[in-house]
Amino acid sequence: MTSYWCEYAWLPGGLAASVRLEMMGERIVGVSADVEARPEDVRLAGVTLPGLANTHSHAFHRALRGRTHGDGGTFWTWRERMYAVASRLDPARYLALARAAYAEMALAGFTAVGEFHYVHHQPDGTPYADPNAMGAALIQAAAEAGIRLTLLDTIYLAGGLGPDGHLPLDVVQQRFSDDSVDAWSTRVGLMSDTPTARMGAAIHSVRAVPKDALAGVVAASVGRPLHVHLSEQPAENATALAFYGVTPTALLEGAGALGPMTTAVHATHLTDDDIASLASAGVTACFCPTTERDLADGIGPARALADAGVPLALGSDQHAVVDPFEEARGLESHERLVTLERGRFTPGQLTDALSRNGYAALGWPDGGRLAAEALADFVTVRLDSPRTAGAAPEQILYAATGADVTTVVVGGEVVVSAGQHRLGDVGRLLTDAISALDDGAAS
């Protein structure tokens, strides 16, 4: 058994002081508050939080950070640059980039990640000899980086949606597509869970998956998390209304795609009826504040969704920023901007969005909390850095950044100690991986 004594820890009932966490293998077996440290305890100064989930990730987007701002543009022009990076990926380069990206996440305090994975095949759309070579690279990358993974294998059948219907796949999108629901389902069925990775599914969007295919995706995904990009852009709503006569939410609802295992990613431009539908179906909404502002997507109705009973989770999406605390602050701060009110979410609600709600959305309902029988995943944040000095421990989310994380434990194993990742220099890993992609552009 291993035991940690925490100066402060965020338990299911809120912040507690002088907390001992006892672990056996990958599980927490005991939690005691207001206790003295024992000689055998590993002492953790600062605030220890439950494992934090990055509920929505596109690992390869990390190669775009700081490279898309020179000429302004829109989400759609940014997407063209993203496609250019996707065209240069192969299993080896993807392994290197994802391993570095996941290590950066762990270093910042994320202990689980939902990878919305759609770069499946060779650039011309031909499957690799192992049809899941790209997914296998992501699973290996997460294992080496020390982060739990839910691989949200994504179906992508069309090149977009216009007022006259779905568009054909373009050259880059060919590698995203399996051509049919049956082919996608067969390929996904070749993969299985591992101790640190679980298989999930995703509908890229109602733009990329036609209405007549949605029910088949739902049937093939029973029992697994099902995620979908939803109403990220007004253009998606406009084209769905023009062609189908309903909003994207209503389209998914009609196909049976909304349920307790469904997560709607972004959920930015929703009607009141959309919100009611998501709530009645038990859907989780995953907001990605740093991406939604970076891409000028807009500010979604977070408080309205929460008030309707929709659990909220958080993700870093395109990784313009990798910092769980900034995502949590973004959820609150964006609400402040649109309502001119402070305190839209309590620290406890923000912590739940980062931890247990995200874990549940990724199919790990036994994680994201510091309690007996839960997964032994936790993150410790220092209280004496230039950013956190003087902060009230219960308000640490409003002061800390990923740079203040000192310790990360996943499944009882130490991944980050004294602010250092077990893989070493994560900046060097990222530099090398991104440079390899740049070399690919010239080859």
From TrEMBL:
GO terms for molecular function: formimidoylglutamate deiminase activity. Residues 49-415 form the Amidohydrolase-related domain. Gene3D superfamilies: Metal-dependent hydrolases (3.20.20.140), Urease, subunit C, domain 1 (2.30.40.10). SUPFAM superfamilies: Composite domain of metallo-dependent hydrolases, Metallo-dependent hydrolases. Its EC number is 3.5.3.13. InterPro entries: Amidohydro-rel (IPR006680), HutF (IPR010252), Metal-dep_hydrolase_composite (IPR011059), Metal_Hydrolase (IPR032466), MTA/SAH_deaminase (IPR050287). Pfam families: Amidohydro_1 (PF01979). Keywords: Hydrolase. This is Formimidoylglutamate deiminase.
